[in-house]
Design goal:
about 80% helix; globular
């Protein structure tokens, strides 16, 4: 099977599985300290992959490589995914997924500002940015009544910040690639990201909640370790390594749709016309941006 075919299959796995993780994450952090929950999830997944590679005698890395992979690990897993888990205690899982779907917009802006991508913005990318901005306005419009709650508003802002951190991590991983094994890189990122979350946990979590952890939270943790981290994150790192960063971020199309559907049917989360319009607008913007990337590639 050709490398690009494998990469697109890996991306498809990311699209579907990560769409379910917003639901699982919300269930998990309901009764479990959120940063501790995400830290256990990620560091366990990282250790499992590292041990499996060691058993297969395919584990080899230098400390320089470890430090290099720790940067995207902390950005994407600790400051990205970990913060999203905390925010989902205050806002619907579907809303969190919609905010994260703006990821390609961040990537374009960061590439342009810091000149990681020297190509000029073409018309589809520029139009995509404008359309996505309209989508962001609609997201806020649909949550006006809740924005008077400072905790809700702060949680929304932290989701935007988490998305920004994930974007920086993706760009760093893409523009400063490692020569190491892709699975090793993914495991190091999960391990380092999980370790940083465990360092953050005593300062940000309430450990008295551990006495009331439910079975649902434990099952959610197991699901996220096996599928959300070991399977899907490894697939994401592989896709990011083999495909353009704009293409590798296409999972942003599918994730919010799955998250909104699960949230609506299983968590009774509100789904309004404005919500759907905001989602369609953001996804149209993402589509235009990626179409612009494809045009740049063909020129």
């Amino acid at each position: 099977m050709q490398t690009h075919t494998k990469a697109y299959i890996a991306l498809a796995v990311v699209c579907v599985v990560w769409g379910t993780t917003y639901f699982a994450l919300l269930i998990g952090v309901k009764s479990f300290p959120p940063f501790l929950f995400s830290g256990i999830r990620q560091i366990t997944a990282g250790i499992v992959i590292l041990l499996a590679l060691a058993m297969l005698k395919k584990l080899a890395f230098t400390w320089k490589q470890f430090l290099h992979q720790s940067v995207p690990g902390i950005l994407m897993i600790s400051l990205g995914n970990g913060v999203i888990g905390w925010a989902e205690r205050q806002i619907p899982s579907g809303l969190a997924a919609m905010i994260v779907s703006i990821l390609p917009v961040y990537i374009v802006i960061i590439n342009y500002i810091f000149k990681f991508d020297t190509k000029k913005l073409n018309k589809p990318i520029t139009l995509g940015l404008l359309v996505s901005c309209v989508g962001i306005v609609l997201i806020f419009r649909d949550n006006l009544r809740d924005l008077v709650n400072p905790i809700y508003f702060f949680s929304m802002m932290m989701c935007f910040a988490a998305c920004l951190a994930w974007s920086f991590g993706s760009i760093y991983a893409k523009n400063k690639p490692s020569t190491g094994n892709v699975l090793t890189n993914a495991a190091i990122q999960m391990f380092s990201g999980g370790a940083f979350l465990l360092i953050m946990s005593p300062f940000l979590d309430d450990y008295s909640e551990l006495s009331t952890v439910t079975a649902q939270s434990i099952w959610a943790l197991i699901y996220l370790i096996l599928f959300g981290s070991i399977v899907a994150y490894s697939c994401f790192v592989y896709a990011l390594d083999k495909l353009p960063v704009g293409v590798a971020s296409l999972y942003a199309y599918v994730n919010p749709v799955i998250a909104l559907i699960l949230g609506y049917f299983l968590l009774n989360e509100q789904l309004t016309i404005i919500t759907l319009l905001a989602l369609l607008t953001v996804l149209l913007g993402v589509y235009l941006i990626n179409r612009g990337y494809q045009q740049q590639k063909s020129n």
